[in-house]
Design brief:
This protein is α/β, with parallel strands linked by helices. The chain has six helices and 15 strands. Bound molecules: arginine (ARG).
């Protein structure tokens, strides 16, 4: 998992609007520093043996660096995101790229934050709703891909996408911040029978969970040393990177990479 990723670039990254609580137009990123962060993330994926495919960003799309919201992709099919109005101009670029690269492309019938609210874990789909994603997307995705959907609702807009609150480490292990999820959602996670690693508040707020793991190497933000140590104790290789500029847009490592190799048709059989 997570061995084939789509990234864009940070060339036009800026805060032109405020659609999440982290974005503040009076606090602009240093673009050169953001480009350097993004380049380092991409290099870390490659060093971990992952394929990184690259799509150029467009000048009118300041959030295009966060490719995770473009779609959810599994089994060579992509369901495009249906983001807030401010980000709609990104979607035709992703539609073209995905089609040209051999994916079957479908539109989302309802609001949908793409992979930001749809984390695949084998046959499970950890799926956010009630903020950027309409809950009716869950049935749509389950019918299309055959996932067993685990609906997750966060307690505030701080966790506007579920990929800030929950992380897939491998098919048997999740990281999560209990304080970000409502009671029924926490219960649904507990009932899965997977191993759950709890992340503490300060580290969750530092976007510790916004990580990419292939089950061997975890690529994550610097600023969550306790969680990083826990992952190392479990035998994982952990690469911690600076994400302070990307954070100004409300995102981190996971947000900058759309996974292209999710599969429901093979794997552990869960
Ligand atoms: N500024 C972007 C937005 O609000 C950040 C998206 C981050 N992506 C994510 N998957 N959490 O849409």
């Amino acid at each position: 998992m997570n061995r084939d990723l789509l990234m864009s670039d940070a060339a036009y990254f800026r805060i032109s609007y405020e659609i999440n609580p982290y974005m503040d137009k009076s606090c602009q990123p240093d673009v050169a520093a953001a480009v350097a962060e993004h380049t380092a993330i991409s290099a870390a994926h490659r060093a971990a043996g992952r394929r990184v495919r690259r799509m150029e960003s467009a000048p009118e799309c300041p959030d295009m660096v966060y490719t995770a919201n473009a779609a959810f992709v599994s089994d060579q099919r992509a369901v495009l995101g249906d983001p807030p109005a401010a980000r709609l101009e990104e979607i035709p670029y992703f539609r073209s790229w995905l089609k040209e690269n051999g994916f079957e492309v479908l539109d989302a019938p309802y609001s949908f934050s793409g992979q930001g609210d749809a984390l695949a874990c084998g046959r499970l789909l950890l799926a956010g709703y009630g903020r950027r994603t309409d809950q009716r997307m869950h049935g749509f995705l389950a019918d299309l891909f055959g996932h067993e959907v685990v609906p997750l609702h966060t307690v505030s807009d701080q966790w506007y996408d579920v990929d800030l609150a929950v992380a897939v480490i491998d098919e048997d292990t999740l990281g999560y911040y209990p304080g970000a999820l409502d009671d029924p959602s926490r219960g649904r996670l507990a009932d899965l029978g997977l191993e759950l690693i709890e992340v503490e508040s300060a580290e969750a707020h530092a976007f510790a969970l916004n990580l990419v793991s292939d089950g061997d190497t975890v690529t994550m933000t610097r600023g969550a040393p306790r969680f990083a140590a826990t992952l190392r104790e479990r035998g994982l290789t952990v690469v911690e990177l600076n994400t302070s500029e990307l954070r100004k847009g409300g995102g981190g490592v996971r947000c900058t990479a759309l996974t292209l190799d999710n599969q429901t048709t093979s794997g552990s059989g869960r």
